[in-house]
Amino acid sequence: xxxxxxxxxxxxxxxxxxxxxxxxxxxxxxxxxxxxxxxxxxxxxxxxxxxxxxxxxxxxxxxxxxxxxxxxxxx
Length: 75
Known about the structure:
The protein is α+β, with helices and mostly antiparallel strands. The chain is 36% helix and 23% strand. The protein has helices at residues 6-10, 16-29, 52-59; strands at residues 3-5, 34-39, 44-51. The protein has a 3-stranded antiparallel sheet with strand order 1-3-2. The mean pLDDT is 85.
């Protein structure tokens, strides 16, 4: 199972609000996540990793019903 960060999935920093929304949805869905430590100019600390299949579902509207109808585009 490929584990990927929100940054890698979206191609940009997700920010704390979106990160919390994804983490909450993953917990509700029983999705296992992992933590990786990163250090660069903009951020140093832990990041969450999720299965790519979960992120595909989340950002295509399958798991983010509480997002006020906004679809987040990535790439």
